[in-house]
Amino acid sequence: MNAAQFPAREPTDWTTDAMQRRIRARYRAEKRFRIYGLFAVLLSAGFLAFLLITMLSSGARGFTQTEIALPVDFAASDIFLEPAQLEGGDRDQLLAGADFQGLAEQTAIDAYGEDGTMLISNGAWLRLREAVADDPELLRREERIWVQASTEVDFAARGADGLHMTDERRAMIDRYAQLEADGNVRRGLSWTFLSSADSSDPTLVGIWGAFKGSLLTMIVTIALAFPVGVLAAVYLEEYAPKNRWTDLIEVSINNLAAVPSIIFGLLGLAVFINTFHLPRSAAIVGGLTLALMTMPVIVIAGRNAIKTVPPSIRDAALGVGASPVQVLTHHVLPLSLPGILTGTIIGMSRALGETAPLLLIGMRAFVPSPPSGFTDAATVLPVQIFLWSDELDPGFVEKTSAAIIVLLVFLLAMNGIAIWLRNKYEQRW
Amino acid sequence: MSLFSLFFLILGLAAIGWITARMRAMRMRPAAPAPRPHSLPGYHGWYVALWLAIPALAFLVLWSILMPGLVEQWVLASPAAQALPAADIQRTAILSEAHALADGSLSAAFNEEARALVPAFQEANSFYGTIGIVATLLLAFAGGGFAFLRVRPDFRARNRVEKLVMWVLLLASLIAILTTVGIVASLLFETIVFFDRISITEFLFGTHWNPQSATAGGDEGSFGAIPLFWGTILIGAIIAMIVAIPLGLMSAVYLTQYARPRVRSIMKPVLEILAGVPTVVYGYFAALTVAPAVRDFAVNILGVSSASSESAIAAGVVMGVMIIPFVSSMADDSLAAVPGAMRDGSLAMGATSSETIKRVLIPAALPGIVGGVLLAVSRAIGETMIVVMAAGLAANLTANPFESVTTVTVQIVQLLTGDQEFNSSKTLAAFALGLVLFIVTLLLNIIALSVVKRFREAYE
């Protein structure tokens, strides 16, 4: 009926060269665009792969250590202790008073020449003391004891693929080959790294102290953030009346979830440390700070999980006479628990990787022994990584990467549990 | 008995109260067709347990806060305390030492006076400790007994317990508000003290930042934060976004429009891992691997001799990589929210997929994408560890990305991790920077969320 308004038009002739060229150009553009997209995905994934491979390849060495044999003659040494003395209660004091350090150094010089002390780690003598503590009979005889080698030997053990070669390093590599031929060195899994805490010597550092600190901090965090977060989510989703107060609560929870983590550090410093005078760098302060940070994440995840429970279940329960709290505890919470737990684990894994707020509340202190309680000075895995990355000694590079591997494995395990929970208990209504 | 074990004793008593009250309520079950009891036995149990535990524990908490003060008064009133020096600092030092001696955490005394105070401390501790234990137990038994007597068939235990549950739920959700108020109050309080010393205009518009040279008297002229703001914008809002926006957007487009479902189901979680890697790992990666490579590239190939090993670009690029999943998932959501009819219409008119995406989907989803980018910017400027480890400390006002710049978050960490007293201008400056950061991220979030919300509503 409108035909009169439009002049009759020739149909497009798609076979002309001009049109074919345009179509080809458009298809080429299509293909290019698609390749850009693929390229973006692959580049992003490539970054991830590069990051992980870099960390893995340099971190794998952090778990190993080089040990060197010291033929220690306790009987002929300056340590005038008798095995019988060590049976008594003052064993630790006697051992602490004895000069094992001098003995280790003297033995190294006797066995490997004037610069023998360069081959052993600064803390090698601790091994001698432990050996004597385990078996006092050693004091009567000579014994070959494996001690940690120094960083230089450790580097030499990996051969010539070090980044920067100096004459000293080349000499050390030759020396290492000689030691290896004599059977005086061995490489293996480093129990020191897995069982001790921070130290200023890279051959003596361990991850256990930071790991335990992380564990204690996370216990505090989850003990506070989980109940409060779940209760708040339940209130907001199930019972809260629609008014200005609940709006305010909602807005502040959504904003807290987006506040930069370092702001929580400032809050922790001002409130927990300067107002309540809780101990600096303790796991409890770290846990409190991280709990405030994690709680909004749990509230948001919890609300989403509770929302997925269909209203018909609530209505049915109310219909047979359940009270609102019974509806909650008998039906809504059990049904939404997998979702809440998934959200909690994701929030916890964010808290576990968090560094900045903990730096501000003093958890960057040097902590040479694992914390034994919530109020002891502690450090956590990410902060330990940060501290080691600042060290100048090149021996710390691989220890830092090894600590990163530990942290990533920890995180991977947590996220694995979250995914497993989601897949196992996820219900579609 | 320590207050700690008293805590567990109360919990144990509460458990016993729960069991006995429940048993008593069970026995109330009517044998004849009398009216059934109002509440289930379990509710009676809870009623008794809560009455037993809550007043006693509240008193216990109060007492453990009050007790140190009372003990100190007792000790100061004792004859041994007359010999204490009048100076306040020495006095507190000796007192705290005596305290440590008394509870056994210190084995040898440093001050003679401290040792003299130990008996007074122990006496006061045992006196007030006994009062605390007796009063707590009395409260527990009184509360429990009161509640136990009320266990009767017509008693509405359930309503009482549920009322308390409601209060607990409300309190839990108020903690969120409390945290927000705590953040704002602590930041504002310190910032106001700071602006008493340094003028606000100098802080916000000054171009010279050098707090290390600031002394007790001459603070003026060292706290101009413009170079910090610029560094933050350069790294977080410019360089990181140059990396994150194209990669994130194109990834989202590819994964939603082109990729087969199988590829999508693998690649989407892989990209999300990027957001889950702890920032300290990115920081280490940036400092150890990216920064030296960037410097060598700039010096050897571009010929920028001033290139720093703590360049803005190294930190910015790594931060951009971290942000990719945020941009990508926001873009993903926005593209999915565009009605399918618009896409189908465009395809039906003969447009290719890429033409549909570029001319129809992205313009339609633009508000959502912009909102996502704003959220990503707010995330990037608040990010700390990457810049602490890879960017520098020098407050340069430069547009050259190969030079070293510093950011707000770096300076907060730097100012607060030294060992200085809490009220120096340096620590106060950190709180002022924190307040600026908090306000800016808050504004960005509010704008972004309202943009996204309006966009969603437009298609509903």
Automatic annotation (TrEMBL), chain A:
This protein's name: Phosphate transport system permease protein PstA
Compartments, record wording: Cell inner membrane; Cell membrane
Domain of life of the native organism: Bacteria
A biological process term (GO) from this entry: phosphate ion transmembrane transport
Cellular component, GO, one term: plasma membrane
GO MF annotation terms: phosphate transmembrane transporter activity
Family stated for the protein in its record: Belongs to the binding-protein-dependent transport system permease family. CysTW subfamily.
Membrane topology value: Multi-pass membrane protein
Record-annotated ABC transmembrane type-1 domain positions: 211-418
Gene3D superfamilies found in the cross-reference section: MetI-like (1.10.3720.10)
Keyword Nucleotide-binding: no
Origin species: Parasphingopyxis marina
Spans through the membrane: 35-56, 215-236, 256-276, 283-302, 402-421
Keyword terms, alphabetized: Cell membrane, Membrane, Transmembrane, Transmembrane helix, Transport
From TrEMBL, chain B:
InterPro entries: MetI-like, MetI-like_sf, Phosphate_PstC, PstC_N
Coiled-coil ranges per UniProt: none
TM segment ranges: 6-25, 46-66, 127-152, 164-189, 228-249, 270-293, 313-339, 360-381, 428-452
Localization, UniProt: Cell inner membrane; Cell membrane
Main location: membrane
One GO CC term on file: plasma membrane
Domain of life: Bacteria
Topology with respect to the bilayer: Multi-pass membrane protein
Domain ABC transmembrane type-1 residue range list: 230-448
Keywords, comma-separated and alphabetical: Cell inner membrane, Cell membrane, Membrane, Phosphate transport, Transmembrane, Transmembrane helix, Transport
Gene3D superfamilies: MetI-like
GO BP term (any one): phosphate ion transport
Signal peptide: none
Gene Ontology molecular function: phosphate transmembrane transporter activity
PANTHER family in the record: PHOSPHATE TRANSPORT SYSTEM PERMEASE (PTHR42727:SF1), PHOSPHATE TRANSPORT SYSTEM PERMEASE PROTEIN (PTHR42727)
Family membership: Belongs to the binding-protein-dependent transport system permease family. CysTW subfamily.
Described purpose of this protein according to its UniProt entry: Part of the binding-protein-dependent transport system for phosphate; probably responsible for the translocation of the substrate across the membrane.
Protein name stated in the entry: Phosphate transport system permease protein
Taxonomic source organism: Parasphingopyxis marina
